[in-house]
Amino acid sequence: MKEIKIGILGFGTVGAGVVEGIQKNGALMAERTGIVPVVAKIADLDIETDRGISVGEGVLTTDAMSVITDDGIDLIVELVGGTSIARTFTLEALKRGKPVITANKALLADHGEEIYKTARENNTGIYYEASVGGGIPILRSQRAGLIGNRIESIYGILNGTCNYILTRMEREGLPFDEILADAQALGYAETPPDLDIDGIDTAHKAVVLASMAYGAPVPMEACPTKGIRGLAASEIRNTEELGYRIKLLAIIKENHGEVELSVEPALVPKTHMIASVSDSFNAVFVKGDIVDDTMYYGRGAGRLPTGSAVIGDIMEAASDKLNGKGVPVSVTMMLQKSELDYCAPGSIEKRCYIRLCLEDKPGSMAKVMNIFGAHNISIASVVQKELHESGCAPVVILTQKAKESEFVAAIAEIDALDVSTCTPIRMRLEDFE
Ligand SMILES: NC(=O)C1=CN([C@@H]2O[C@H](COP(=O)(O)OP(=O)(O)OC[C@H]3O[C@@H](n4cnc5c(N)ncnc54)[C@H](O)[C@@H]3O)[C@@H](O)[C@H]2O)C=CC1
Ligand SMILES: N[C@@H](CC=O)C(=O)O
Ligand code: NA
Hints:
Belongs to the homoserine dehydrogenase family. This protein is α/β, with parallel strands linked by helices. It folds into 3 domains: 2-136 and 303-335, NAD(P)-binding Rossmann-like Domain (Rossmann fold, 3-Layer(aba) Sandwich), CATH 3.40.50; 138-299, Dihydrodipicolinate Reductase, domain 2 (2-Layer Sandwich), CATH 3.30.360.10; 345-429, Alpha-Beta Plaits (2-Layer Sandwich). 37% of the residues lie in helices and 25% in strands. It has helices spanning 13-33, 64-68, 85-95, 105-121, 138-145, 160-172, 176-185, 194-197, 200-214, 233-241, 303-322, 329-332, 364-374, 404-415, and strands at residues 2-9, 35-43, 60-61, 75-78, 100-102, 126-127, 151-157, 244-255, 258-269, 281-288, 292-299, 341-342, 349-359, 379-384, 392-399, 402-403, 425-429. Strands 7, 8, 9, 10, 11, 12, 13, 14, 15, 16 and 17 form an 11-stranded mixed β-sheet that branches. A 6-stranded parallel β-sheet has the order 3-2-1-4-5-6, sandwiched between helices. Strand 5 (100-102), helix 4 and strand 6 (126-127) form a beta-alpha-beta unit. Helix 3 (85-95) packs parallel to helix 4 and helix 6 (160-172) crosses helix 7 (176-185). It binds 1,4-dihydronicotinamide adenine dinucleotide, the ligand N[C@@H](CC=O)C(=O)O and sodium ion. The site of 1,4-dihydronicotinamide adenine dinucleotide has 27 residues, from helix 1.
């Protein structure tokens, strides 16, 4: 048996989950791998709060840098979050040749290229399974099980907080803010939770997945991002009646060498497996050119599920270090090319859900339909709802596939019509065809 001395930076939700997991199953891990994981140091600015876990005397410190520079520590686990001090800690550890394990998708999305290159230059590794899909081993699947595939498409529900909010809005009809407060209390949400509800956390994860799928660091600017802020309960009811469910989706595809990437609330058919992913669960639906369709499902957030992914990486990093492996595939796969080509967002073809409010006047609908026709947008279905007391009628339209640029132009023209009485709402409809 060989011991590996672990230094953990950040003893919050995930840090405490990692320590709890190692305390519970460390002996099992040692039996399976011959490596004994020893939590030698834990740094946190707050070492007073009781995390419900007892650690040995002298393990806790407020000085993270002293853990990084301690020659007795073999590997560093970065769980402080954010992109500033976390970047400093990560680079400092890598420069000292210490492998770093992180759950920090924001850090990788904003500074991934610098971090992967620093790891490579220092003949060591950065391991980040917990950064995407929490406890789901999705990155390990991509870099090992699917290594022989060209990735055609990835659809992901990657944010536990948003999926939890959408699920409870649909099931219980509760207000958005009340459910968000519960997600925060359960430890799912980021600080601040705007990162979750504005889709930015999902975009952070999408760029990590896309980088691994296509072999180059992907900048956040390449990922047009919309979240679920302001989503009305009426939209959830309308889509439900039409046989769809709203999910915040990361969409990653490759067409003729160009990568399409976006994060947006989208309608998915209730009959599709991804529609049944509820609460804080995440799922990633990957199509490879050899394997065809695969799907990965599990808890995307929370103390122990995320801790599980970090622990998996700790054991892999320990094994790589003890075997003198040097730079792991989690680094080399992200740096195969310097950059990727991206589809122009306007050229992307998609179906859409559109909700308008129209004055109840003869000819209102005809004006709208003329605009769609002029933009080559073909209509799959139209439902006019009951008139409001105001004399306006909500109209729900599902379209066939058309170009994004045509949708943008058509919606602007409809919005400017005198018979249109509220800003049109538009969401992608994804039928996975
Ligand atoms: N909570 C979750 O379910 C998941 C979180 N993550 C990621 O894991 C990371 C950690 O998240 P949480 O544990 O939820 O955050 P948290 O806020 O619960 O814990 C962070 C801890 O780091 C400590 N800290 C901050 N600055 C420090 C410094 N300079 N030195 C030492 N300690 C410092 C804080 O006092 C706090 O205890 C973040 O990058 C987050 O995005 C990833 C997947 C799931
Ligand atoms: N805030 C994130 C935490 C995990 O990455 C989420 O809700 O998914
Ligand atoms: Na994961």
